[in-house]
Design brief:
binds 6-sulfanyluridine-5'-phosphate; 8 strands
C-alpha cells in the first residue's frame, strides 16, 4: 500500500515526524483535509473567519505580514481559537534566504512566528541552509515545515529536477519537514503529507497568474492530502456554508482514494 490509498490513521502510524502524526490524526478525527487560506489585511476579519470556519478545517493558513492592524492580541486569539476548534496554525511565510537570515525571520521581528505557528512554508531554492536555520530557531515536537516544491501559478520556475531536488532536501530534514506544497503526485513516504493550493469551485484562474482546479482533481490527479482553499471560501457570500461544501468534497475525494 502506498501513501495514495492508505487511510489516515495508518499513515499517522507510519509517520516518523510527531507533527505529521498529529495532523494526520486530527484530519481523521475531524474528517477534514481542508486548509483555509485567510488572506485578509484586517485582524478582525482574520479572527472572525477563524472563529466561524474553525469547525470545518484542519489548518488555518495565514500571511501574517499582510495584516495592517497586527498586535500580540491577534496571535493570542488565533492560539485560543486553534485550541477551541482543534486546528493547527500554518504561517505561509515562504522563507527563502540563507540560514542565518531565516533563523532571525522565524523567531524575531514583531511576528515572532516560531512562538505560535505550528507549521511554516519554505522555498528550498537557497539549499539546505534554509532548513538548518529554521531548525536552529524552532526544533521542537510541535513545530514543522512544509517545503514549497512546486507552485500553482502559471510560469513558475519549478522544473521536474527542482521538484526532485526539493524532496531530497526535505527528506534529509525528516524531523522538521512534514511534507510538500506541490501540484503533482510526487513519490514520498506514507507518513509525509502533500498540500495542494490553487483549488476553487468558481474560477479557473485569477488575473494575477493563479490557476485553479476542483477538489477532486487536486486529490485524485495531483495527489493532494491537504487541499488549500482561499478566496473560494473567504470571498463567497456565505463562507461557512462554502467551507462545509469544500470540506465534504475534499474529504470524500480522499476517502474514495483510500478505497481505490
Ligand atoms: O503554489 C502555491 C503555494 C501557495 S502556499 N500557490 C498558492 O496559491 N499558495 C497560497 O495559497 C497563496 O499564497 C494563497 O494564500 C493561497 C491560495 O489562495 P486562493 O485565494 O487563490 O485560493
Amino acid at each position: 500500500q502506498s501513501r495514495i490509498n492508505m487511510p489516515l490513521m495508518e499513515r499517522a502510524k507510519a509517520a516518523t515526524n510527531p507533527l505529521a502524526q498529529r495532523l494526520l490524526t486530527l484530519m481523521d478525527r475531524k474528517k477534514s483535509n481542508l486548509c483555509v487560506a485567510v488572506d485578509t489585511q484586517s485582524s478582525v476579519e482574520l479572527i472572525s473567519m477563524a472563529e466561524k470556519l474553525g469547525p470545518y478545517i484542519c489548518l488555518l493558513k495565514t500571511h501574517i505580514d499582510i495584516i495592517d492592524d497586527f498586535s500580540k492580541e491577534t496571535i493570542q486569539k488565533l492560539k485560543e481559537l486553534s485550541e477551541k476548534h482543534d486546528f493547527l496554525l500554518f504561517e505561509d511565510r515562504k522563507f527563502a534566504d540563507i540560514g542565518n537570515t531565516v533563523k532571525m525571520q522565524y523567531k524575531g521581528g514583531v511576528h515572532n512566528i516560531c512562538d505560535w505557528a505550528h507549521l511554516v512554508t519554505a522555498h528550498p531554492v537557497a539549499g539546505p541552509g534554509v532548513l538548518q536555520g529554521l531548525c536552529k530557531a524552532g526544533l521542537r515536537d510541535d513545530r514543522g515545515c512544509v517545503i514549497i516544491a512546486e507552485m500553482s501559478s502559471s510560469g513558475n520556475l519549478n522544473t521536474p529536477a527542482y521538484i526532485e531536488d526539493s524532496i531530497k532536501i526535505g527528506n534529509s530534514f525528516g524531523g522538521f519537514v512534514i511534507g510538500y506544497v506541490c501540484q503533482s503526485s510526487i513519490d514520498v513516504d506514507a507518513g509525509v503529507i502533500l498540500f495542494t493550493p490553487g483549488v476553487s469551485l468558481d474560477a479557473s484562474s485569477d488575473s494575477l497568474g493563479q490557476q485553479y482546479v476542483t477538489p477532486e482533481t487536486a486529490v485524485n490527479e495531483k495527489g493532494a492530502d491537504v487541499v488549500i482553499v482561499g478566496r473560494g471560501i473567504t470571498g463567497s457570500e456565505n463562507p461557512v456554508e462554502r467551507a462545509e461544501q469544500y470540506r465534504k468534497r475534499c474529504y470524500d475525494a480522499l476517502c474514495k482514494r483510500f478505497e481505490s
